[in-house]
Amino acid sequence: MTDSIDARTTDRNRLPPGQIVTQKWPVLHYGTVPMVDRATWSFTVSGAVERPYTLTWDELVALPRQETLCDIHCVTRWSRYDNRFEGIPVLALLQRAGPRPEAAFVLVHAEHGFTTNLALEDLARPANLLALSHNGQPLDPEHGGPVRLLVPHLYFWKSAKWVRGFEFLEEDYPGFWEQNGYHMRGEPWTEERYGRPDPVRMRRGPRR
Question: Which H/E stretch holds residue 122?
Fold first, then answer.
């Protein structure tokens, strides 16, 4: 039996400020849709963890699943209610890795060299998934299939498409969109849409 979590907002206005509800799921991303070969695909957990590891596609899909019912909110001002995602719970992946005490942030790696940054406390939430399906159907490549990150409490650019790994860091480091003017965290209800990353961190780069 698949575990299920309802992550829809109940403690505040369901629609964040500045957002418009849509029934559609707009397709937005930078660059082309990658051709993902499951035979050579891998997911790597590295950095400040006790037990770094790499999963093949077959190893990933063999892990226990979870269903998350959630709303999603894009920084471009659309929101979509009642999305049912199924995939691998992120918490299980973190427990397997054993983040070290100094690990406070994670740089998410995806296809085409794309990255996005998250505080560990934002990544380590029960609703978060490596999502494989949406509303009962495998994720389309345009929406991040075969697997994307799901972090529904933040703007949806943080839910990286075509995800390939987590790199655990002691310090926050801006990912692709964060280096190009997006906010370092991206909380929808306080409209953390845009902000300037620390240029010193950008020059230093993540510690590997």
Answer: helix 120-123
3-state DSSP of 173-195: CCCHHHHCCECCCCCHHHCCCEC
CB distance 59 to 42 below 8 Å:
no
* CA 91 centroid distance within chain: 12
List residues bridging with 85 in a β-sheet.
Answer: 68, 134
pLDDT number for residue 111: 96
DSSP 137: E
62 near 130, Cβ under 8 Å? Answer: no
Start-to-end C-alpha separation, the chain? 38
Separation of alpha carbons 81 and 198, rounded Å: 34
Q: What is the mean pLDDT of residues 154-159?
A: 98
CA distances from 154 to 17, 160, 199, 207 (A): 13, 11, 23, 25
What pLDDT score does 205 carry? 62
Residues forming beta bridges with residue 110, ordered by sequence position: 163
pTM for this model (two decimals): 0.92
Burial of 199 (0-12, 13-18, 19+ CB in 10 A): exposed
d(CA 64, CA 60): 9
Give dist(CA 46, CA 99) in Å, integer. Answer: 10
Computed on alpha carbons and rounded to an integer, the radius of gyration of the chain in Å comes to: 16
Phi/psi of residue 121, each to 5°?
Answer: -65, -25
Residue 84 to residue 197: CA distance in whole angstroms? 33
